[in-house]
């Protein structure tokens, strides 16, 4: 590759996100002429796992009431349930029914994970287990360790989101449940991650803590040894692709953080303005009752203030429920990529030598 890494945008200044250069955009004349782009190898990867049988400790609680359904009937039912794109899906996962547990040492929330599948890796067609947040965190760490060349979907933030006082409130728990459900659905739809052994155990094991302890006995020690060896491997010259991606991600995350702060400030000011409008509108209604000649125009002003209040409330709700969550997901994905690119860089750099 003859071109150097593209120049990143400065952290401040009136620059648009649309002006940010792509990290792998070529700067040489040869790359400019050959504009044909090829898709990522991950996108072309077929689901060829027929030769790999996973023997797993499936101890989940079956959710069926009577005899289990046959694979063919279950497949037809699942296909009817989610036949949006005309594709037959063989794995469905949902997160629901959060419950609060109060113990002597701690208080925490668990979520019910319901799995329906026709894959041969599952002993039963349906499972129902309960998991807490730290179990989701364990799953993500295991996926990062076992699939270092794949981007693992991010988890929702572990600590209380800014502005939420009670992490056991219904609003916060429901927001986290939706985020955890989206996290598992993204893994389920992935052609590689959905076949991961740890993901299977997470969905089916009745006692996940026992599996964690079993893995700590041997696998973790081996993994730490490998990580120690690979961690000591220092590159004299990092490939330009990874340097460019690193600069791009740093700039991208900085811009997203700025947008997030501005959006929160706008929402705060909109809420304060909405309170004033709601107090201001009734004044004109009361005034119109005292002024016979001005009653009609004063009532018109009061109605306009009411319409403005309704529109501003809808705008604030849209930004809070639709815009900010998506923006924060981009920030989490950016952090995931920055955390995974160094590991991938080490693997790819060895291929260069």
What can you see in these coordinates?
- This is Sorting nexin-30.
- Pfam families: PX (PF00787).
- This protein has a 3-stranded antiparallel β-sheet with strand order 1-2-3.
- The C terminus is likely disordered.
- It contains 10 helices and 3 strands; from the N terminus they run αααβββααααααα.
- With 353 residues, it is mainly alpha-helical.
- 55% of the residues lie in helices and 8% in strands.
SSE order and pairing:
Layout: H1 29-33, H2 41-44, H3 71-81, E1 91-102, E2 107-117, E3 126-132, H4 133-146, H5 170-188, H6 197-204, H7 208-217, H8 219-231, H9 240-290, H10 295-352
Antiparallel strand pairs: 1-2, 2-3
What descriptive keywords fit this protein?
353 residues, mainly alpha, three-stranded antiparallel sheet, disordered C terminus
Entry summary:
The chain is mostly helical and 353 residues long.
Strands, total number: 3
- Mean of residue pLDDT values: 73
Q: How are the strands of the biggest sheet laid out side by side?
A: 1-2-3
- Measured between the Cα atoms of the first and last residue, the distance is 15 Å
Rounded Rg = 27 Å
* Major sheet: 3 strands, antiparallel
Decide which structural class fits the backbone: mainly alpha
Helix content bin: 40-55%
Percentage of β-strand residues: 5-15%
* H-E order: HHHEEEHHHHHHH
Poorly predicted parts: 5-15, 27-59, 61-86, 346-353
Q: Note the overall shape.
A: elongated
Number of helices: 10
